[in-house]
Write a structure and sequence with these properties.
Blueprint: E1 10-14, E2 18-22, H1 24-35, E3 41-43, E4 61-65, E5 71-80, H2 85-104, E6 110-119
Parallel strand pairs: 5-6
Antiparallel strand pairs: 1-2, 3-5, 4-5
């Protein structure tokens, strides 16, 4: 099987019965939903903070191939104030990679996380 490209639908060869194509938008949605399962990280489109106007659901997660052809996910997220940001984002990266693989059999080389804002909840 060849390495799938992110700009086209990602394909899996399936014996003589045909193939399965997974649109990049599906992978991006999986990553966005996986983010909701990590305590302390919020997908940018779920947060009503100052960056909301700059990011939409369509571009808070981006899937692309790097120069060597590897699949990369880039995410814009919000971290809850008081959280250990590096530890939380490492957990997010691992969870996103595992979830995408479990659901699609697609290996993601890297998950790049951009923390765009802090969620500060009023007590």
């Amino acid at each position: 099987m060849t390495t799938p490209t992110a700009k086209d639908a990602l394909s899996h060869e399936v014996d003589a019965k045909g193939s399965i194509n997974i649109a990049p938008e599906v992978i991006e949605t999986i990553a966005r939903i996986a983010c909701e399962h990590i305590e302390g990280a919020l997908p940018i489109n779920e947060y009503q903070g100052s960056f909301q106007a700059f990011f939409s659901k369509a571009n808070s997660v981006r899937l692309y191939n790097d120069e060597s052809g590897q699949v990369v996910v880039e995410m814009a997220v919000v971290s809850e104030y008081g959280r250990d940001i590096p530890k939380t984002m490492l957990a997010l990266q691992k969870h996103v990679k595992e979830t995408i693989y479990e659901m699609t059999d697609i290996l993601v080389d890297r998950v790049n996380v951009v923390v765009c804002d802090l969620a500060i909840w009023e007590q």
